[in-house]
Design goal:
Elements lengths: L1 E2 L2 H4 L2 H4 L5 H23 L4 H13 L8 E4 L2 E6 L8 E7 L17 H16 L7 E5 L3 E6 H9 L2 H11 L8 H16 L4 E6 L10 H10 L2 H4 L13 H11 L1 E6 L2 E6 L10 H11 L15 H30 L17 H12 L8 H4 L17 H5 L10 E3 L17 E3 H10 L23 H12 L10 H23 L7 H8 L5 H12 L3 E3 L6 H17 L13 E5 L2 E5 L13 H21 E5 L2 H16 L20 E3 L26 H13 L3 H49 L6 H25 L27 E6 L9 H10 L9 H13 E12 L9 H10 L1 E7 L13 E7 L8 E5 L7 E5 L1 H4 L11 H11 L3 E2 H4 E5 L19 H6 L3 E2 L7 E5 L4 E2 L2 E2 L4 E4 L11 H4 L2 E5 L8 E4 L4 E2 L3 E6 L7 H8 L2 H10 L12 H6 L1 E2 L4 H20 L6 H14 L4 H9 L1
Parallel strand pairs: 1-7, 4-5, 12-15, 12-17, 15-16, 17-18, 19-21, 26-32
Antiparallel strand pairs: 2-3, 3-4, 5-6, 6-7, 8-9, 10-11, 13-14, 18-20, 19-20, 21-22, 23-34, 24-33, 25-29, 26-29, 27-28, 30-31, 30-33
Helix pairs in contact: 3-4, 5-6, 5-8, 7-8, 12-13, 13-24, 18-24, 19-22, 22-23, 23-24, 25-26, 26-27, 36-39, 39-40
EC number: 2.1.1.72
Protein name: site-specific DNA-methyltransferase (adenine-specific)
Organism: Gelidibacter maritimus
Length: 1212
Amino acid sequence: MNKTNTRKALNPAYRKHKPLRKDVTNFITQLKWCIDAVKLSDDRAESEEHIKSHFKDFFTSTFYSENYINTKDRIDLAIYLDSTVKSDIGVIIEAKKPSNKSEFLTEHDLNRKALQELLLYYLRERVDNGNNNIKHLIATNGYEWFLFKAEDFYNIFYKNKELIKEYKLFRDGLKDTSKNELFYNEIAKKYIAEIEEVLPFVHLDFSKTNFEKLSDAHLNTLYKIFSNVHLLGHSFGNDGNQLNKSFYNELLHIIGLEEVKDKGKKVISRKPEKERDYASLLENAIYHLEDRDYLPRVKSVENSPEKAFNVGLELCLGWINRILFLKLLESQLLAYHKNDPKYKFLNSKFVKDYDELNDLFFSALAKQEDERHPKYKDKYKDIPYLNSSLFERNTLESEAFEISALSNDQCKVYSNTILKDASGKREKGKLPTLEYLFRFLDAYDFATDGNEGIEDAQEAKSLINASVLGLIFEKINGYKEGSFYTPAYITMYMCRETLRRTVVQKFKEQENDQIEAFDDLKSYCHRYFKTDDLKRFNGIVNSLRVCDPAVGSGHFLVSALNELIVIKNELGILVDAKGLPLRCDIEIVNDELYVIDDNGLLFEYIPTDKESTRTQHTLFHEKQTLIENCLFGVDINPNSVKICRLRLWIELLKNAYYTNENRLQTLPNIDINIKTGNSLISRFNLDDDLKDAFKGKEVNYSFKDYRNAVAEYKETNNKERKREVLEIINEVKHNFTSSLDNTFISKFQKAQGAYINEEERLKNLKAFGEKIKKSEKDELKRLKEKAEATYLEKEEIVNNAIYHNAFEWRFEFPEVLAEDGSYIGFDAVIGNPPYGVKLDLKEIDYYRNSYDFIIGHVEIYYLFTELALKRILFKDRELTYIIPNAWFSNKYARKYRQSILDNYKILNLINLNNKNVFEEASVETCIISIKKSFVVDNYLVKVGTDVTEESQYEFDVDRWSGNNNLIFFAENPIINTLIDKVNNAPYKIDDVLDVSNGIKPYQKGYGLNLNGEKLNDEDVKNKIYHSKTKLNEVYKREIKGKHIKNFQTLKGDMYIKWGKWLMSPKGIRYFENDKILMRQIIGKTLISSIDYDKQYADQSLYILIKKEETIGSLEYYLSILNSRLYGFYFRNYFSEDDALFPKIKVNELKSLPIIVLPENHQVRFKEKVVEIISLKNEDPQAETESLEREVDQMVYELYGLTQEEIAIVENS
């Protein structure tokens, strides 16, 4: 049987959440009462109906007081999703008396009537009622509880087509009896028997439980297994996908910032002058910058009116980053030492003011324990040395000042502060800013350990984990742009899919070319157990090179790190220093790594325990190895780079351990893998030769020295050696730059020399009276032009300001260079590149000259795609981005689409247009994975509308190539086939009907007014050419969109003076002929009718008239345009459909496919339309629904739709 460990059934993130003691005590009291009440009722031979009331009382008095709980049909008890009977059922409960042993489940025999009944009730809800919100199913007799996840019922039962077929026959009375016993004994029993061994379940047995003797960990688990978080999937407030807004807003207040809306975007700004608190970190810093005249000394930030703000904010962000990191460290140390208060150092008793905080930064954390000044050795004896550049004086601090320069003033407490005073009320008034910050942080739980305890305080603290901090870092860091944090479920999916494929490819190339999928790889690795084999496999994974070229806060790199750890664990190659595998399970939930030990408990590092230390040591060094060898990032924003480094240090900090010397393991110098620069701009090509950089007597280092220096930099924990190694790295990089510069300088000098020499020679000839030949003059002209061209080329490369932030992929990451210095490339490029970025003219010119994927409009994510595919990726490796989906059909993206479809292999394309991926952004997005390999033959690409496996299917890429490279796929393959049937029509509307916009009468600066001058504001406002009556023959009846309904044309109520004086009068043929008029804003269908009365349509309508050569009638074409099929086609095919006010654009209308029947076959369509129009003309309220449905059926038949396809259209 597939019994699930109770703890493992819980979400690991929820397991870390500590419930309040009072809540757990109440729960246990109610559970015991329920068990006793059921026993008493059973002893009294009460009915099962009576016993159900005890379960209802139990659920109501614990977690479900706000949920409707009752029977439904034959269901014993159901917990609904909210307080109303109209909501869906979330939990189905089957209750039995304890004495009814024959019908109740046992651990070794699930196939009893109780489970058979649950299956019947599940199928009724899922199949008949379409309820896809069921979360759990429970069978209980009070003492025992069997819990089943509805997700498992879905996969095992609902997906079983034979079971569903038999259930429907039984439901519809097509068996020999409709009694439930038939279903239990002949259907349910049979199908449960087939899967009984694999159906997962949780079993709780309280028949011998002494609740008073249960540990906190057991009580914690019991409490959570019955909670609405577990049974109904409610949020518990610590989701790494969710911003903790209370924490975020108060932190902004302490810094001196606020979040405001600007042009639809939430951005962070300095508070308005009247609301500024000069004791906040930012205002305190700006005061000192301006008052003490520091700004002129700051050279690293460009001069601008906002320089004081920019410098002040960057200083503050650096300090806040350090303090938040230290809060995590403090929580870690407290966990390691069982909350020993001597490890609690972030408080106003230990750190009294900014001077002492500065001492903590630079006199303690930045120095090894034995190098600290004697006056600090005792005070900081429990504070570890971290070896992180985070605690080295940064450039701004060197140019301006350290945090010790701030005044120790009092800051006004945030109006919605989390702080409470002694009486338990919200704190008011003012507090010293540093004390306020420390107390604020202390009001939250930063713990990263796996302690599954219970909170004895009166109020639980909200958990602030690394994912939540990452979200906050991203928002504060992107204060100017209103940056958008990629949700955890997206980064996890992208990293999981991409890295698993990449690891498979690596093993396929290096181990066995029969390995095709990750399951193959698992089977392959599990055949080996020798230490040398496991180390070899580790080496293959460690050789992965993963890059995010727009790294932001480092979210993707953190997700990649976690995924690589899980991959190693699943392959069985996550081993310690001796090559022995770890004894634990590892999984990722909400972007956090959870380690579960042999006992099913969340891993907790205990420094005195050998096995615990082995696990912690292994995880630390595995993360270190992967960060140093596998993860690389670049960002144009230096603050992003700092935060990315911080995120990776935090991931290492989680597994920091005590060495044999009883010192906390120092952090490696991982900062060298995350670099600042513009990923899209490089002075040097990837095939430029680096040999000249290592030639000459003045060159001190070889390419091998460069690689070794980078490796040593990551490992050393000696500050002096670190500086020496950094000097070697910088010197080599300077030599690279100089040698490549010298190539262009030398080229110019050579061309210039040739020109000067030839010019001098010809002057001498002329001086001696010789005649200069035309060929010699032409040669001199050629040499001059060459010299000028090489000069411009040299200036373009050597002195062009566009290269100020250039990033040199050619040599910045020696890890992706071969032994001879040639460029190899990355194994995976993953990220969320920027889009919608405003570029200056110089940048646009550079990109147009340097990139091929663009024509016309320069969209920056096109460039990041090309950067990966054409430049920095290794062959047969893949790119995965989340980007806008506008490129599917946007005319400016046609080169982008063509370049991808013609030259690379799309592996995955997930259209997230129905998902609100970015909370603050309205842009629709997609996830695309592309392999850098050319595919000649047609192939299948995996497409979908969500990251779940069920939403994805295989799609023939030729369908895009055969559709002018326009990208389209629907949420299921049946719709694709349906769309193809419409697209296969041999004609377009534009082939048979002449399409035009209606009249646009007025626009300032266009047309003519009564004085013969261009229209002005008053003319437009007064609508000078409109009248309520027909003044003369020049005035024509005007018709608007509101006058058009399907198959019904109403009379317009205004007249317009038509002529060349209007802004856009259009040709008279569009008005004086019979015509189809279509509203631009559509409804469930396209909305159009025929105007036989020569009305003049305005700009809210499209006009369609027959071309001279067109066969048939307008009524025939109207029948197709107004059909449900075409409404469905338009909404599904054109991705720019606005859900609120969807419009059809003129080019979309022209491109609609259409079948043109011979005229005699059009007659029946025309007759139906004429009948509908006639009825509506006689009575505008006439009921024509049945006739319109007949037209729909004729159109379905015309396009060859199946009954299944028709049902999809009808139900959409």
